[in-house]
């Protein structure tokens, strides 16, 4: 087992899916295609790609693309995510800060972010809490209500 209930076979599957997804990225400005593969609690794999925009701030990263796609399909519980960048040695890349915050919203702090080691290409992983310590969040009561705002937490 790689850790956190994710097997070595699942790690290999996620990295392969992320690599294949990267081929579908829309990256005409950076020429930096990225793919992500998200493992749901029920074993499904949902992929996303980066989608660039001429107004760079509107670019959507692969990790957030995968989360948005999964949530739009009714999936909200995830075990791990793999990230792959085609133009990096061995596909190694880590999520940006915005993606780390979105991942912290939907994955448990001990969930894995899987990538490859930039030097040898072997799989490596970090926990969400290591990538984004002290992530911003609103606490919800058992009914899913956010006392900080009085609103309901999405999905709560």
Average pLDDT rating: 88
Q: Overall 3D geometry? A: globular
Low-confidence stretches: 147-153
Which structural category do the helix and sheet elements fall into? alpha+beta
CATH class: Alpha Beta
Instruction: Give the C-alpha Rg.
Output: 16 Å
Please count the beta strands (DSSP E, at least 2 residues each).
7
Tell me what the structure shows:
- The structure is a single chain.
- The protein has 156 residues and is an alpha+beta fold.
- It has one domain: Cytidine Deaminase, domain 2.
- Helix content is 26%, strand content 25%.
- The protein is built from four helices and seven strands, in the order H-E-E-H-E-H-E-E-H-E-E.
- The strands form two sheets. A five-stranded mixed sheet has the order 2-1-3-4-5. The protein has a two-stranded antiparallel ribbon with strand order 6-7.
- It is globular and about 45 Å long.
Key terms:
about 160 residues, alpha+beta, Cytidine Deaminase, domain 2, five-stranded mixed beta sheet, about 25% helix
Quick synopsis:
This protein is α+β, with helices and mostly antiparallel strands and 156 residues long.
Please give the structural blueprint:
Layout: H1 8-22, E1 34-40, E2 45-49, H2 62-72, E3 78-85, H3 97-106, E4 107-116, E5 123-127, H4 128-131, E6 145-146, E7 151-152
Parallel strand pairs: 3-4
Antiparallel strand pairs: 1-2, 1-3, 4-5, 6-7
């Amino acid at each position: 087992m790689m850790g956190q209930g994710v097997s070595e076979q699942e790690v290999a599957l996620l990295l392969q899916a992320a690599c294949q997804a990267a081929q579908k990225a829309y990256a005409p400005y950076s020429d930096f295609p990225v793919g992500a593969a998200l493992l749901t609690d029920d074993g499904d794999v949902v992929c996303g790609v980066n989608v660039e925009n001429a107004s760079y701030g509107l670019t959507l990263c692969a990790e957030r693309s995968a989360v948005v796609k999964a949530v739009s399909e009714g999936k909200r519980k995830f075990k791990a995510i793999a990230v792959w960048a085609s133009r990096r040695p061995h596909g190694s890349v880590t999520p940006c800060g915005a993606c780390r915050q979105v991942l912290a919203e939907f994955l448990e702090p001990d969930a894995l972010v899987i990538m490859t080691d930039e030097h040898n290409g072997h799989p490596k992983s970090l926990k969400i809490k290591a990538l984004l310590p002290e992530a911003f969040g609103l606490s919800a009561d058992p009914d899913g209500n956010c006392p900080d705002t009085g609103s309901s937490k999405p999905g709560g």
